[in-house]
Amino acid sequence: MKTEKREVEERMTHFETVLRREGVKLTHQRMEIFREVARTGDHPDAEQVFQRVRKHLPTVSLDTVYRTLWLLNDLGLVTTLGSSRERTRFDANLSSHHHFVCEQCGFTRDFYSTELDKIQLPDSVDSLGEIEATHVEVRGVCRNCVENQKPKTQS
Amino acid sequence: MKTEKREVEERMTHFETVLRREGVKLTHQRMEIFREVARTGDHPDAEQVFQRVRKHLPTVSLDTVYRTLWLLNDLGLVTTLGSSRERTRFDANLSSHHHFVCEQCGFTRDFYSTELDKIQLPDSVDSLGEIEATHVEVRGVCRNCVENQKPKTQS
DNA sequence: TTTAATGCAAAAGATTTGCAACATG
DNA sequence: CATGTTGCAAATCTTTTGCATTAAA
User: Fold this and answer.
1) From start to end of A35-86, where are the E strands?
2) CB of B49 within 8 A of CB of B29?
3) Which domains can be identified in chain A, with CATH numbers?
4) Any chain B CB within 8 A of the CB of A28?
5) Closest-CA residue in chain B for A96?
6) Residue B155 — pLDDT band, cuts 50, 70, 90?
7) pTM exceeding 0.90
8) pLDDT for B154
């Protein structure tokens, strides 16, 4: 649940370095918000971060928490579980498969792999609970988005 | 993008079987909503399903789409990408790791595995775009939830 | 000081719910 | 025909935005 003290300190140092490098102001709020995510292993959502930060910083507002979390995400200091900024998506493919998801446009494609289907999970996972499904999520940038970002060679 | 005709038909048959078995009414709306998810490989969200179903069934309402998709999910006829009914969750752990997620309470725990870190993806994935990260998502029911569901031996 | 960041309040967006009308089994 | 399901409208919940004030560099 809790991240090791040493590790949290390292993350804080890295956080400060990146903010300075990017010329982004190192505010009290940003420190506390990042520290809160850095020190827990339970992957809180914005509301949970807000509630926890509030204990140390009673005047912080929820919209600052949102803005800060996305900023940290853009700076590569945090990531999101599941594909970010997306609504729930549904899948009628019940056979064992895996996903490639484009970070930019949300394009998603199934892929199959008998190799991946037989992955052995470490024992530590079994002790967490009963396993129902295992699948691989590949994040990247789809061909289309890669194309559209390339500087045009001619215009 | 499109699922094979034969496969769609199989899914429809299974859909009907399950609905009958569960004593759930087989309405026109439910058929069209399920068919729409069954026939595409792009994992639409509720709004997209709504827009597509509307073409065949102009009177369908968005709330029916939501109700139906969650019903189908509960019946095991569809699944969701990412953990269902959850808000975006943030993670400050930048080292390579994987997740166990409890389907019932959302409890999430990181785990590590050098084995998993070296998974070879099939070539077909490379052709989809540029890969940035690969990680394994294990879904299951955590110990706590398993406990709480067990019929009490004494009361 | 200068400019970016915050907090507030309000807007926008997404999802859910109560209920009368309706369709299915 | 009885009951579950739908569509509508309204409610609720979540996330974002505009703007005056405040604080960091």
Assistant:
1) 79-81
2) no
3) 5-91 (1.10.10.10), 98-149 (3.30.1490.190)
4) no
5) B79
6) very low
7) yes
8) 45
At B137, is the secondary structure helix, strand, or coil?
A: strand
Token couple for A77: 């200091």
Amino acid in position A24: V
CA distance B39 to B41: 7
Predicted confidence (pLDDT) per residue in B108-136, tens digit: 999 999 989 988 999 999 999 999 999 99
pLDDT tens digits for range A106-147: 999 999 999 899 889 999 999 999 999 999 999 999 999 999
Calpha distance B147→B155 (Å, rounded): 14
3-state secondary structure of B5: helix
Strands B98-102 and B129-142: parallel
The integer distance in angstroms from the CA atom of B77 to the C1' atom of D22 is 53
H or E element at residue B49: helix B46-56
Burial of A81 (0-12, 13-18, 19+ CB in 10 A): buried
Residue of A nearest to B134 (CA): A138
Residue A154 has pLDDT above 80, yes or no: no
Interface contact flag, B116 A119, Cβ < 8 Å:
yes
